[in-house]
Each structure stands twice: as structure tokens, then as C-alpha cells.
């Protein structure tokens, strides 16, 4: 099998983060490198951005408020900006903001170039480092929606008193798992962030989250980091529903438990650990301004002001669609129930 030959070219077994990096971002085989639609109705999954443009509109107003009241430079940096839909709404509604998009996927990068290159205040880079080299220390806002859940993670499993790191290897053309002793780096992470892993449980080790947050903090002279994602607190790790961790695949809007299947054909994602991002933030001089559910956040920035009263009977009218989307953002049973918003400040 060609993929397996590529994947295990350097060694017989590789850690999960290397596997995920390949499955998502490899130039030839990676999910985010091929040109099939990933986001929205015709893709594999929805993000809040694709529910309705009102999501980006309200957050754009909030960004402008933060910039005005804190005297920041009018610069928004969005990392992991996908197909550029969020950026487009912000640019259309806030012509005075400079929008910097950072997108690693070649496919999404090209989609954004087509969609947004007519905005003179739009810039795009393939990685944060490229942006950092140009802007050094900047004042403004760094935003991401569902970036951290797309970063490759390591996986550990506890058996009895021992914690092992889970690796993957090829066995007669099939990818299977193998347990190995944990490295010092993984051990330090478990101790530093006080992860309690019960016997028989597995969980993710999010070293890339730490690197990415540190990079953000270092590049920010003054301003805010606004992170929206699905995640858990450390205490949730003890819950039986977390026994197998949170790593999973998404293929055509279906959840796929076996992330070792469909290599390169589906998204692989896992919940962020908010305690890790908050603690690592403090270590990088980032204070927490607020941390709450997405619906509470959207209510606090005035989402309900966008409701329109109308007499249209057509459920597909623009007014009906808008009101329905607002409802789904606000209800505890809607899309927001899974998402939290962390706002950090420097
Ligand atoms: C789950 S999608 C979310 C897209 C978009 N933010 C949205 O809400 O619709 C994650 C995106 O992050 C991008 N990405 C992952 N790691 C990245 C990194 N280190 N730098 C920039 N983009 C990254 C992926 O290519 C993908 O387009």
C-alpha cells in the first residue's frame, strides 16, 4: 500500500502526532492538501462560521470595540482561517481593519486568494512564522476558530501504574497501535498540567498547542488572543465518557471512531484542554479576560440585536434563516453548546 510505504519510510512505528500530521497535512496525501470541499454543507463538517454570516459580523463588531477602547492597531490576525468565509464578512463590514490570514492548507490558501484578493486590506501567509518575520511585535488581535482542535496530538494510555505513549505501525498493510514508554517531554507535560489519567484511560498530549500559543504570545506586543473551540477542563478527564480520549474523524458529516482508517480522506480532530491553554497563557504573560460558553459570549456581544421581526411565511427567506441561525447559536441544544470562547490579553 503506497500510503503506508510513505508513512513508515523513516521508522517502523511513529507517534500519533506524526501520523496525524501526515494524514492531515502531507503535501501529497494529506486531507487538507487535496482539493475536495471540506467545510459547510458540501464538505465533511460545519463550523459556526458556516452556520450564518451573523457569527462573523458580531465578532467583527466586538473586535472593533476592543481596538477602539484599548487603542490597538486595527489589525486582525486569523490563524487557521479555512476557506476565508469569516475573513470575508469581517472585511465587508469593517473596511478600516487590516486582515491578516494565516492558512497552512494549500487548498484553503488558494480558495482564499480567489475569494479575497480584491480587498486591499487583506494579506495571507502560509505559516505564522512568515507573518512574524514581517510584523515582529504587533499590537492587535489574534483570532482562531477551530484551529487548536486541528493540531496534531500525541496519545497516551495508562495500564495499571504505567503510562505508555501510543505509536502506530504497519502490520501487513493495516495500521495498528503499539505502546512504548513515555518520553521525558510527555511526562513533564502530564506533571506540569496535572493530568489525572485513570487506569485503562487514554488521553491526548497537546504539545503543539503549547508551541502555537507561545508563538502567538511572543509576537503580540499588546492586544488580545480570542480562541474559539470545543474542549474540556482537566476534571472532565476523569469522566467515563473520556475513557478513550477525544480523538476522532469526520467524513461527510459522520463521526468516525477509528482515526487510523481513511488516511488522508477525512478530518481528524480532538478536544482542546482549556486548562493547558489557560496555564500556558499565564506562563507567557497572557491574562484571562474571560472564558465562557459560545452562547454566553455571543449574547454578551449583542447577538440578539440582530433578530429581525418579519411577516414572511417563507421559512427560506433571508429573515427566517437569520433568526433561525441566531436561535441555534443561543439555545443550549444548538451549535454553541459544544464551544467555548477564551479571551486572553497582553
Ligand atoms: C477545522 S478548520 C477551521 C477553519 C475555519 N477557521 C472555520 O472555522 O471554518 C482548521 C483550519 O486550520 C488550518 N491549520 C491547521 N494548522 C494550522 C497552522 N499551524 N497554521 C495555519 N493554519 C492551520 C487547517 O488547514 C484548516 O484550514
What does this entry look like structurally?
A hairpin with a 2-residue loop joins strand 6 and strand 7. The chain is built from eleven helices and 16 strands. Helix content is about 35%, strand content about 25%. The protein starts with a helix and ends with a strand. The strands form three sheets. Strands 2, 3, 4, 5, 10, 14, 15 and 16 form an eight-stranded mixed sheet that branches. Strands 1, 6, 7, 8 and 9 form a five-stranded antiparallel sheet that branches. It is globular. It is α/β, with parallel strands linked by helices and about 350 residues long. It has a domain of about 220 residues: Rossmann fold, CATH 3.40.50.12710. It binds S-adenosylmethionine. The site of S-adenosylmethionine has 20 residues, from loops.
| Largest sheet entry | 8 strands, mixed
Radius of gyration: 21 Å
Approximately how much beta-strand content do the residues carry? 25-35%
What is the H/E string? HEHHEHEHEHEEEEHEHEEEEEHEHHE
What percentage of residues falls in helices of 4 or more residues?
25-40%
What oligomeric state is this? single chain
Low-confidence stretches: none
CATH class category of the domain at 36-151 and 206-233 and 267-345? Alpha Beta
- What compounds sit in this structure? S-adenosylmethionine
CATH architecture of the domain at 36-151 and 206-233 and 267-345: 3-Layer(aba) Sandwich
Structural class: alpha/beta
CATH fold field value of the domain at 36-151 and 206-233 and 267-345: Rossmann fold
According to DSSP, the number of beta strands is: 16
Straight-line N-to-C gap: 49 Å
Amino acid at each position: 500500500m503506497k500510503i503506508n510505504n510513505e508513512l513508515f519510510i523513516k521508522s517502523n512505528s511513529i507517534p500519533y502526532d506524526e501520523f496525524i500530521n501526515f494524514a492531515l497535512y502531507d503535501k501529497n496525501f494529506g486531507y487538507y492538501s487535496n482539493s475536495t470541499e471540506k467545510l459547510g454543507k458540501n464538505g465533511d463538517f460545519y463550523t459556526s462560521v458556516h452556520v450564518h454570516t451573523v457569527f462573523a459580523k458580531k465578532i467583527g463588531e466586538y473586535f472593533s470595540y476592543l481596538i477602539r477602547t484599548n487603542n490597538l492597531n486595527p489589525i486582525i490576525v486569523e490563524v487557521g482561517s479555512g476557506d476565508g468565509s469569516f475573513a470575508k464578512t469581517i472585511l465587508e463590514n469593517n473596511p478600516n481593519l487590516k486582515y491578516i490570514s494565516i492558512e497552512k492548507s494549500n487548498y484553503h490558501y488558494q480558495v482564499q486568494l480567489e475569494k479575497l484578493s480584491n480587498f486591499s486590506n487583506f494579506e495571507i501567509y502560509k505559516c505564522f512564522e512568515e507573518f512574524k518575520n514581517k510584523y515582529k511585535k504587533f499590537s492587535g488581535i489574534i483570532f482562531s476558530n477551530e484551529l487548536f482542535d486541528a493540531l496534531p496530538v500525541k496519545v497516551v494510555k495508562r495500564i495499571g501504574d504505567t503510562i505508555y505513549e501510543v505509536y502506530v505501525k504497519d502490520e501487513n498493510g493495516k495500521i495498528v497501535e503499539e505502546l512504548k514508554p513515555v518520553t521525558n517531554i510527555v511526562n513533564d507535560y502530564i506533571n506540569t498540567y496535572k493530568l489525572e489519567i485513570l487506569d485503562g484511560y487514554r488521553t491526548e498530549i497537546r504539545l503543539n498547542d503549547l508551541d502555537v500559543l507561545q508563538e502567538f504570545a511572543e509576537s503580540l506586543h499588546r492586544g488580545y488572543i480570542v480562541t474559539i473551540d470545543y474542549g474540556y477542563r482537566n476534571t472532565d478527564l476523569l469522566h467515563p465518557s473520556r475513557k478513550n480520549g477525544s480523538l476522532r474523524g469526520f467524513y461527510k458529516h459522520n463521526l468516525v471512531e477509528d482515526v487510523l482508517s481513511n488516511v488522508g480522506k477525512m478530518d481528524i480532530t480532538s478536544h482542546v484542554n482549556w486548562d493547558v491553554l489557560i496555564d500556558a497563557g499565564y506562563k507567557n504573560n497572557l491574562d484571562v479576560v474571560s472564558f465562557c460558553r459560545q452562547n454566553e459570549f455571543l449574547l454578551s456581544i449583542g447577538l440578539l440585536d440582530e433578530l429581525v421581526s418579519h411577516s414572511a411565511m417563507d421559512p427560506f427567506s433571508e429573515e427566517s434563516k437569520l433568526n433561525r441561525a441566531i436561535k441555534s447559536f443561543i439555545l443550549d441544544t444548538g451549535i454553541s453548546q459544544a464551544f467555548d470562547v477564551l479571551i486572553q490579553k497582553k
